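SEQUENCE WITH STRUCTURE:
===
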Amino acid sequence: MRSTMLRILVASVLFCACVAFHQAPLVRSAALRAGVSSHARRSCLQMVSSAVDGITDDKRRLLKIVSTTGMGKEESIAGAQEVDAIINKLETLGKGFDEATVDGEWQLVFSRNSKGSPSLQKVFSFQKGFANFDVREKVFHNIVQLAGNKIKVLADVAYEAEGDRLHSTITMAGIKLGPLFIPLPFKGRKGYLDMLYLDDEFRVTKGNRGGVFLHVRPNSLLSKEA
């Protein structure tokens, strides 16, 4: 589980060593210094590239698995075990919550409900949805689209970040049908969301009741693979 993280760490250390070696006055021969450091740099870059490729492969493998589950509704026991293994591996990379990275639109491609998940979440979690972050306002907007986007289930959630955990409070919830808005009685409910993994196009989160959610950027290449 820690092999990818270790490879990145080793590559980073070697890269720093390459730079230090290139600048060291102890090596008198400029030709030797240039030749050796150039080779070492190529090796470092290859290791970093290999580690990044490994992360990309994990994400694509995860998307391939969940793409057969009907957004999680038809997840098998074996599939769940494989999904958990990949998520655990990604989590060890330490790429958690970051406001600059999370800001903007995110499309839901997979969700897994727990026994304790809210009933409304269980009903709508396998529909086309988004969880879009507005970091300036410190809120994320949950949107579920039904009947070809003619009906929307909405929930705005204010958050306060504590490390990779977002302490959350629902500030608005309702169903929008054309110009009609029907409020739902969830305002003020609290919970938290753990950011297990986050990069520019891919994020994995886990709710305080055990639900697991996978989102991608709507226009990314990964969204076309989901």
